[in-house]
Amino acid sequence: MTSTAVNHDDLTDDTTAPKLAAVVYNPVKVDIDDLRGAVEAEQTAAGWPETLWFETSAEDPGQGQARQALEAGASVIIVAGGDGTVRAVAEVVHGTDCAVALLPSGTGNLLARNLQLPLDDAALSLHTAFAGQDRAIDVCLIDIERADRTIDRHTYLVMAGLGLDAKMLANTDDALKAKAGWLAYVKALVAVGKDDSELRFRYRLNKQPEQSLRAHTIMVGNCGSLPASIELIPDAALDDGLFDVVVLKPEGFGGWLQIMTKVIWENGVLSRTKFGRKLRTGEVDALNYATGTELVLRLHGPEEIELDGDGFGTAVALKTWVEAGSLTVRVPSDAAA
């Protein structure tokens, strides 16, 4: 597998553009009365006009609301919800001049974690929306082919996965997730942990010759940090113009031990210091990494697929690629330039 790299400035400062904020919020995850008061205070302090408000629904988790906000002239859309709401809004906003500001309100808050944004400081998050600076990040697009040969296109910001993680999400009890958060995933993990079935697929990375592979799980990551300080892909970056491919191929207990050692110890502990990074070992048989800008993959049969922590049904094939720097995200103004 081959790698390519893209270098570009990731921070911009446009103080001349007209300012209008919109909030796209999931009513299940936020206290709307408290949120309105906090937004009004920041809007007044910044001298912006009255903020627009759009509520998501089960039928429309954010795409329609984002379109309405853009049509109304919003320059910043504040996303108050979980990873699914963020992904839905980004699906519409990427490639436009509108920025996205995050008000983490979900279970995982994966994009916010990878941007190292505050997860439990709503005041700072809202201040950033009105007074922060813009950072350009990459967006991954994916065409998912279904068993009936229909194809639907989506966006993801964190990770797409086939195998263990997708099956785990498919088995997660939504009611338990709402009450117990990440503990719900533990129950689901136990349910699928005994599944030793393999993914069989053909793939082509970066337009190189097609190859065949058997694996337990394959994930394509735009970034690599997960909850509980798990660094699945320690070298992944949101603004390098690349995605990272992770393939899990454990053979019994020894293979899983290799994976846990790499992910928990090497990625999660050693990679945190310059000296520790020197102690990291090379690639192991059970866990392989690669980078790229385009991946085409066809499975032997339908398999569960997930995007940014949400199940997206089953796929028989997919094509995914990177649009470098196509989404603008608001970050605190004291972020390193």
TrEMBL record:
Keyword entries, A-Z: ATP-binding, Kinase, Lipid biosynthesis, Lipid metabolism, Nucleotide-binding, Phospholipid biosynthesis, Phospholipid metabolism, Transferase
GO biological-process terms attached to the record: phospholipid biosynthetic process
GO cellular component: plasma membrane
MF terms in GO: ATP binding; kinase activity
InterPro entries per the UniProt record, alphabetical: ATP-NAD_kinase_N, Diacylglycerol_kinase_cat_dom, Lipid_Phosphate_FormReg, NAD/diacylglycerol_kinase_sf, YegS/DAGK_C
Transferase listed as a keyword: yes
Residue ranges constituting the DAGKc domain according to the UniProt record: 16-146
Keyword Lipid metabolism: yes
Coiled coil: none
PROSITE patterns from the UniProt entry: DAGK (PS50146)
Superkingdom assignment: Bacteria
Needed co-factor(s): Mg(2+)
Signal sequence annotation: none
Stated family: Belongs to the diacylglycerol/lipid kinase family.
Descriptive protein name: Diacylglycerol kinase
Organism: Cryobacterium cheniae
